[in-house]
Amino acid sequence: LLIRLLVVGKIIINNTAALMHRVVTKVFTSLQKDSISFNSLQTKFHALDKATINAARDIIFKGINILGNL
Description:
- By secondary structure, this protein is mostly helical.
- The chain contains four helices and no strands.
- The chain is globular, with a radius of gyration of 13 Å.
């Protein structure tokens, strides 16, 4: 969802979502796994569920709080 927000907000202007997802899967990890599946990322990018939206909202609010403390 965060990647999708960056694309919709025109912060990331790469038109090839698949290329962007490959880069993310190679560079980032999650708390549960050492690697992120390309197919999982593709699925989440195109079909968001409520849990993903809530998790992204929590991350964004946490980031806002951190920025407020700087």
